[in-house]
Amino acid sequence: MSLAVASRSCRRLTLSTRLCTGFVLLVAVSCVYAAVEQELQFIFNTFSFLVWGALVMWMCAGFTMLESGSVRTKNASVICLKNIGLYSIAGLMYYLVGYNLMYTDVSGWVGTFTLTYGPSAQELALLSGDETAKAAVVENGYSVMSDWFFQMVFVATTASIISGAMAERVKLWSFLLFTAVLAGFIYPIVGAWTWGGGWLSERGFQDFAGSTIVHSTGGWAALAGVLIAGPRLGKFRPDGSVKATPPSNVPIVTLGVFILWLGWFGFNGGSQLALGGAADAVAMSNVLVNTNLAAAAGVIAALSVSRPLLGRVDLLAGLNGAIGGLVSITAGPDIVTHSWSIVIGLVGGVMVVAGMKLLENLKVDDVVGAIPAHLFAGIWGTLAVCIAAGGNLLVQLTGILAVGAYVFVVALALWYVIEKTIGVRVSTAVEEVGQDSAELGIESYPEFVLMPDTDDVEMLSNK
Amino acid sequence: MSLAVASRSCRRLTLSTRLCTGFVLLVAVSCVYAAVEQELQFIFNTFSFLVWGALVMWMCAGFTMLESGSVRTKNASVICLKNIGLYSIAGLMYYLVGYNLMYTDVSGWVGTFTLTYGPSAQELALLSGDETAKAAVVENGYSVMSDWFFQMVFVATTASIISGAMAERVKLWSFLLFTAVLAGFIYPIVGAWTWGGGWLSERGFQDFAGSTIVHSTGGWAALAGVLIAGPRLGKFRPDGSVKATPPSNVPIVTLGVFILWLGWFGFNGGSQLALGGAADAVAMSNVLVNTNLAAAAGVIAALSVSRPLLGRVDLLAGLNGAIGGLVSITAGPDIVTHSWSIVIGLVGGVMVVAGMKLLENLKVDDVVGAIPAHLFAGIWGTLAVCIAAGGNLLVQLTGILAVGAYVFVVALALWYVIEKTIGVRVSTAVEEVGQDSAELGIESYPEFVLMPDTDDVEMLSNK
Amino acid sequence: MSLAVASRSCRRLTLSTRLCTGFVLLVAVSCVYAAVEQELQFIFNTFSFLVWGALVMWMCAGFTMLESGSVRTKNASVICLKNIGLYSIAGLMYYLVGYNLMYTDVSGWVGTFTLTYGPSAQELALLSGDETAKAAVVENGYSVMSDWFFQMVFVATTASIISGAMAERVKLWSFLLFTAVLAGFIYPIVGAWTWGGGWLSERGFQDFAGSTIVHSTGGWAALAGVLIAGPRLGKFRPDGSVKATPPSNVPIVTLGVFILWLGWFGFNGGSQLALGGAADAVAMSNVLVNTNLAAAAGVIAALSVSRPLLGRVDLLAGLNGAIGGLVSITAGPDIVTHSWSIVIGLVGGVMVVAGMKLLENLKVDDVVGAIPAHLFAGIWGTLAVCIAAGGNLLVQLTGILAVGAYVFVVALALWYVIEKTIGVRVSTAVEEVGQDSAELGIESYPEFVLMPDTDDVEMLSNK
After folding, report:
1. Among residues A128, A254, B395, C391, which one has the fewest Cβ atoms lying within 10 Å of its Cβ?
2. Is the pLDDT confidence value at A4 over 60?
């Protein structure tokens, strides 16, 4: 049932030392398929990290479009600033402390607290022209900073999730402060437990590209945030009804989802972490196909259930269904069959729509449906590895619960501290006028004539 | 005149069996340029499929932006849904039946009707750790599913073309139903005749990346669709005049064309199907350059003729000219010289503008000019291979006519059946209020104050 | 302090002839790290050019979104046309004459004036099936046209810079004419001095991916243009105050900057020009990381100083700060350390905001802040190579001044000639009504109700 017997639980690639191709050939001429020479593997692995990593960076643009099109026009610019700000801060924090906490000498729970990260001494020697350093460089399997680059772009994804859920009321600076801590400390510690080789990795926790490690982490932090911040003004009316807050710019929401879909090929494909042999190339191909099938299934499922659950064929449900499918497959795109990918994506798509409905019923205000798409689908995806590919259910549950408890509690505490100091939420006046003009002094679409808030209109018409 | 003596008429790469590099070296030490080792070729070929295929998927976002910016705001969301829906459905259908019909054991006219497609047994064995399977895996030249991925993204392009031509009046579900049949059956059969190695391929039909196979197929299906559906309400007035229906959001139309242009590097570049040797790398480079030159020439030509033909320097003509140039070069970017590419693109650009004018005169309502850009330019590109690179005119004509007759007739029949059952076209009431609110219950730009329909204004002012 | 002892001052890659891997192995079996076989290097180098080059082409979409969102809605379409037009014209001109002037037999100051460029005779022979040509093909290190493709996309960047600075008043055809000369002659001559191996290259001028050669060239030409054209009507009021002209569509401006950021990975990463060995792969990784860190630092710095300098936390400053950081690092991303990249980006970000303020005080109307972002940051970046990596200050200054003097004077003369013939600037009537309706006969957002010009409103309210 599974495409491969075992998924790497640790994200750092360890290449087994191989003999030189040529040497093998001299000894055993008939050995037609000697391993690919190490330096070639090094180039392939490195280039894979860079190309796919660039596509993952592109996902930040996807989140930005999705979110700024989803919020009301009065908050669209501040969403843009939050997203380019979070990407910048996340990258800098991950350079300063995050990567080392996640990957450097991880002893079960966390790596080392060391400032900054950089190329190895051997790499610097090689760049200076010392060819004798090449052996040690190549032994590493990939360029040190290509790995850093690929890991870094994942951090930003986690933060982007929060931005969408808490849109339209969280203060710009409070959000960016949270982002800095998340990228520098919260996420790297989750990473150390798992991809860094820590205790969850040792137990065999499987999460290929981060259904739990990236997406649920973002989802838990977002859930903590929306609970502390509370819903937007007027979202849940005193009479129990829910105010509709439709996307203000549907085409760019759609564009955002296409960007995410494209970027996910890098997110999951690059997470193979290697391209130095036929097996890696085959695996990477299967990963891309599974990623695409799950996303497609998520769209179809979400559209199909949107009519019974939401009362209409809902484009936004369909778009979020794509994300739900993508998040669901992310834990095991290397080990499930293509047909299972479709099933996993279908369930993910349904969960997103049902989750959006559930949160609304619980009066939890998640502006873009990020919690269903990233947290609920992330949990499902991490469990689906067991169903579809024989993962260890107990270990997967342990991982889900441990990461969930840790991230949710720490995020809740951090949001609470922020609330008690600089405040999580903008004032009522700012929220009414919009964060764009209040916090940034601009409008997103200054020349366009906009309607007054629909709720005001409704209230007027009720009089 | 031609860069290469022969273009592959069959899209499936067959690697000639090569001796192991090392073995050759032992026997003939002076053989400096032994062939690249098979496993390396395998990695290069596979990675080329994946990277370029990802860019082709991105074209779906391009069509979405182009189309949703081209239609009136009241139909922009339903275009978004159609496009993400068609990409999802096309991918699933191609997985379920399409690929097998197109490529598996094609006997002249069609492959096998077998459900689902997947990695080879040897690939699964290799992924399970059986290194002895590597020889058979590598012998295939590329990972099975990387090829599937690359072929799959082409299907969606075909469907996207139809979406644009029939915008603003075709029912959501009727369109998606047509898409499913197109991706599962109509397109794969065209593909079986040609890239699958069927009868047209055996006659030497040349269509490198699908001027006819992809673009004209979409164009013929679109033409059948618009003939059955008829023009939009009020597009052609009783007095013979044509109502202008300008794009509602020009910047995203432009963005869409840039996305398509970028994606076309994958579309044509990846269609080299191989990157395992210097000749393939050279060919791929020439392909990208020709693709870019033809597109650039298409822009310039379309802009130049837009003033005499359309009465003004027309941005939309220029943008469509890029697509015309791209479609034109797609049949032979590997075998024409760079200067011929410019000529081919220039003609393609002119044809698009002239074609838009022609369709308008014929009272055929093609919302985005998809039929001129994909069908007319596709025919021209398929013939241009003869002029510029000595292709066989009779064979090319046979291919154009056979594909055209088959697709047009089948599409016409299918649209007719849909019309007689669930209906192709939305009701007059839905068309007037817009598909977004009628079919989806949303507005694309709900906060923006929009003008009443210009035609109503005109009618009022005529009173 | 520096990652490598020397940066290539000449952009054409010269591969040292290497013995065949296999031969080396026979002679010296213990040589585990023989060089990568030439044909493999050829494939890697070529594919790197193509993939990264495609991302650089994508930057043109970034400039288009940035600019069309930054201008008032009445000029957004003409910006789209200028950008797709300039990309087309630049590519054609670079094919016709530009590349040869820049790279063919450069004798100190300029290459040869020869029409068109194309694959080598050996490449054509190889494509025709002549395997004996492979040795000579592979000796070149990369496919001839892959290099052309990568160089071509850089030309368009230079022209895009000018489009933004001179927006909202330069005539469409005057701008496109300037673009043709820039791409065909002005830029290639700068390129010949430097990357082409001319006099500045011989002196050791270091500009890895073009802080001076691309970005300052564009910036100088833009400065000349805005001086000849003058500010937009009403931008600087008689009372000395400055009319705010906020972006009309903030989300697409943000999208544009994300596109540029992504594209810059290709711009700088591809400028390593090679991927044929471990050292190149390591260098490319460092380049991408430095590029990203400098951009992130530019965002943070620009946001931080925007409040004191501009009076508010300014999203546009932050977005332009990203570009400032990116331009700053472009001269030496291969030789500065990661921490220095952050410093370089921080300074670049500050300079952009300060530069925007300075130009405003000088009554120079640069619509999108292109001159601070590309010229000022470009100068800084070229000098920063000395500070951070021991470049030769005198040589760097020579390059900056020589390029600046040449480009500025020639551009000034050319704009002057254009002004005296067809005119640089649209008429007052056209400027007031907007170039979209006056020059193209369309509106960018025809269905949206737009506000009257804010200045008119202000003037009215002052009455």
Report:
1. A128
2. no
Q: Pick from B33, B314, B449: which is nearest to C138 by CB?
A: B33
Closest partner CB to B50 (pick from A269, A297, A445): A269
Q: How far is CA A164 from CA A179, A185, A322, B250, in A?
A: 13, 21, 16, 27
Rounded CA separation C308/C289 (Å): 30
How far apart (Å, rounded) are the C-alpha atoms in residues C159 and C230?
Answer: 19
Residues 250-309 of C with CB under 8 A from B: 252, 255
Phi, psi dihedral angles at B48 (to 5 degrees): -60, -45
Alpha-carbon span B267 to B259, nearest angstrom: 12
User: Does C343 lie at the interface with A, CB-CB under 8 angstroms?
Assistant: no
Residues A138 and A42: their CA atoms lie apart, in Å, by: 6
Q: Is A414 on the interface with B (CB under 8 A)?
A: no
User: Residue C79 corresponds to which amino acid?
Assistant: I
For chain B, give the number of residues: 463
Kindly list the residues from chain C whose CB atom is less than 8 angstroms away from the CB atom of residue B251.
64-65, 68-69, 76-77, 80, 249, 252, 444
A50 touches chain B (CB under 8 A): no
In Å, how far are A59, A89, A151, C300 from A267, measured between CA atoms? 9, 20, 10, 26
User: How many C-beta atoms lie closer than 10 Å to residue B330's C-beta?
Assistant: 32
Contact criterion met (CB < 8 Å) for C127 and B288: no
Report yes or no: C42 at the B interface, CB cutoff 8 Å: yes
The whole-angstrom distance between A219's CA and the closest CA on chain B is 25
Rounded mean pLDDT of B395-402?
Answer: 98
* Interatomic CA distance for residues B231 and B254, integer angstroms: 25
Mutate to test the interface with C, among B250, B265, B293, B457 (most CBs of C within 10 A): B250
Would you give the end-to-end CA distance of chain B in angstroms? 63
B278/C95 CB distance under 8 A = no
pLDDT in tens, C354-379: 999 999 999 999 999 999 999 999 99
pLDDT (average), residues C207-218? 98
Alpha helices (runs of H) in A184-216, residue ranges in sequence order:
187-193, 199-202
| Token pair for B225 | 């669709």
Residue A68 near residue A249, CB atoms below 8 Å = yes
Burial of A31 (0-12, 13-18, 19+ CB in 10 A): middle
Q: Does domain C41-459 have CATH number 3.40.50.2000?
A: no
ipTM of the complex: 0.93
* pLDDT reported for residue A388: 87
Whole-number Å distance between alpha carbons of A378 and B44: 33
* H-type alpha helices, B230-277: 250-269
Chain A residue with the nearest C-alpha to that of B22 = A25
The C-alpha atoms of residue B92 and residue B152 are separated, in whole angstroms, by 9
Rounded Cα–Cα distance for residues A27 and A35 (Å): 14
Instruction: Calculate the dihedral angle through the C-alpha atoms of B291, B294, B298, B304, rounding to the nearest 10 degrees.
Output: 150
| pLDDT at residue A428 is higher than 90 | yes
The whole-angstrom separation of Cα A100 and Cα A93 is 11
Helix, strand, coil percentages for chain B (3-state, nearest 5): 70, 0, 30
Phi/psi of residue B449, each to 5°?
Answer: -80, 125
Please count the residues of chain A.
463
Closest CA to A319 of A57, A72, A67: A67
Task: List the subunits that have 3+ CB pairs under 8 angstroms with B.
Answer: A, C
User: CATH number for the A21-456 domain, one of 1.20.1250.20, 1.10.3430.10, 1.20.120.450, 3.40.50.1110?
Assistant: 1.10.3430.10
Q: Phi and psi (nearest 5°) for A242?
A: -110, 130
pTM: 0.94
